[in-house]
Amino acid sequence: MDLTEEQLNELEEMAAALMPPSDIAFLIHIPIQERELFCEMCKNHVNSQLFEYYQRGKLRTKYELRKTVIKLAKAGSPAAEPIAEKFMLEQSQKE
Q: What is the C-alpha separation between 92 and 30, in angstroms, rounded?
């Protein structure tokens, strides 16, 4: 599936807004008969541009949210501290 550079950038930005591929497909005018393939490629085709742009958008937001939680936890936020501990545990388990 070939998308324009503009569509790929829109895909990344919408993924960063945590929109699902099905909504993104509609908004960037993927033809209805190609939407299921588009969604599949965004989620599972690790060697495709769609996967790369979609994941990069999602991960950028994940990173930004984690930075915010860590900053709040360091400042003593009782709500952020257990979330930061969860992040630390997750990181240790994936190392």
A: 40
- 13, 57 Cβ separation under 8 angstroms: yes
Per-residue pLDDT tens over the stretch 6-59: 999 999 999 999 999 999 999 999 999 999 999 999 999 999 999 999 999 999
23 torsion bin: left (phi>0), alpha (psi -120 to 50), beta (else) = alpha
This model's pTM is above 0.85: yes
The DSSP 8-state label assigned to residue 4 in this structure reads: -
Give every CB contact of residue 42 below 8 A, 6+ residues apart in sequence: 11, 15, 21, 24, 50, 51, 54
